[in-house]
Specification:
Elements (H helix, E strand, L loop, with lengths): L1 H77 L6
């Protein structure tokens, strides 16, 4: 009976630290994974915002050219430099 009790305590004494290490490693791994997901999501959102802003600027420049040309023509017609 005494040897069984000592064996159980030794087995428990060896198993508990390993379980704690596995739990700590698992928790750190999970937290690292979640932090990585958050970082990737934040970076993707920043990239989408930047691309959207650049696209808006390019489209504004592209579509403002005909307006400027029309305004120049209107001014030229007003000054009688260009006949309609």
């Amino acid at each position: 009976m005494v040897s069984t009790l000592c064996q159980f305590r030794l087995r428990t004494a060896l198993a508990v630290p390993f379980l704690q290490i596995f739990a700590a490693v698992g928790l750190v791994g999970y937290l690292s994974f979640r932090n990585g997901q958050k970082a990737v999501t934040d970076l993707a959102n920043q990239l989408m915002t930047e691309v959207s802003n650049k696209t808006d600027r390019h489209l504004d420049n592209y579509f403002s050219a005909p307006h400027h040309i029309n305004q120049i023509d209107i001014d030229a017609i007003g000054h009688c430099s260009l006949k309609a």
